[in-house]
Amino acid sequence: MAPGRIRNKVWRVLSRLSKPLRARLNDDTESYAAIGYPTDVVMRPASLMAEHRFARVAGKRRTITVIYNYYKKESTLFKSLDSLEHQSWQLCKPEDIEIILIDDGTLGEDLVDRLPEKVLYLWQRKVGYGICRAKNTGARLANGDYLVFLDPDIMVGSSFFDAMIEKFRLFGDRLVQCGYIWDYHFQGCPDPRSEFGVWELPDRPTRRFYQVAGGNMAMSRALYMETPGFDEDLIYGGVEDLLFGYHLSKVRGTAVLFNSSMESWHIPHPPGGAHADPQKSWEVVRKKWPEFFQQYITLGLR
After folding, report:
1. How many CB atoms are closer than 10 A to CB 122?
2. Which residues 6+ apart lie within 8 Å of 53 measured at CB?
């Protein structure tokens, strides 16, 4: 068969195969435009995506994987990393800890050259507020039995890992743990969730899923894999932790434990440039997760 005829036949086959995909992508683009998503980038709902098939990081199995979602926080990151080194090390050892940092598109920094060699660094192209994609990527790469989602402007206390492991041993792995965060808004500021009463009876399993905060949060990797993960459609930020708490509440036999010994401190820093727009995020939630929207916004459940 002549080369020209072969080329034309291949093109016709490819055109037939790609037509349904093009139609779906066009439909998605129109639906995203209706709720304010950028239409110059084709995006599909995270619920329709197959799970990212990342290979595990080469190396032995670990007890804990710390996952940083990072964007322009160089001024605080190294203080946070340093706090991970200064642990009491009673229930785990330094070699049991894996650290993964997912950079949500930072440009103009030499961070990758300055990081300790043991930190696994990945850079992702920035599309909106990519914190959910960063957390999901880190979780799926992790070798740890437990995942710690930690913001790069959070410094943990010396008993952080031991306190976390102690509660998992006591209550099992069907729970997510959240630690106390000092100085969140200003120096001396108590944890913002204090006004909702979560620290009045800490250190026991509860159903307070709408008080989950991802800046200092731990759970088993097995439990994370039972959830849909953090919703990658929330490219405007500001709601992702609350929605993740809702998804956790739908998983059988789960609970939230507010661990008063998993103390941490927010490190003051200049604006990072990643400004959330919760109003747009709530509009996405209203369309995609109406039950959660009704419970949290309409009924005011906390």
Report:
1. 16
2. none
The amino acid that residue 12 corresponds to is: R
Q: In angstroms, what CA-CA distances link 134 with 71, 124, 138, 236, 255? A: 10, 8, 6, 14, 24
pTM of the shown model: 0.80
What does CATH list as the number for 59-277?
3.90.550.10
- Our CA angle for 265, 153, 279, nearest 5°, is 105
Radius of gyration of the chain (CA): 21
Question: Does 148 have pLDDT greater than 90?
Answer: yes
Dihedral in degrees, nearest 10, Cα atoms 253, 254, 256, 257: 60
Q: What is the dihedral of CA 154, 160, 165, 170, to 10 degrees?
A: -110
Distance CA 281, CA 278 (A): 5
**Do residues 267 and 153 lie in contact, with contact meaning Cβ atoms separated by under 8 Å?**
yes
Instruction: Enumerate the domain spans of the chain.
Output: 59-277
Q: How many CA atoms lie within 13 Å of 191's alpha carbon, on the beta-carbon side?
A: 24
Q: Residue 126 — very low, low, confident or very high, per pLDDT cuts 50/70/90? A: confident
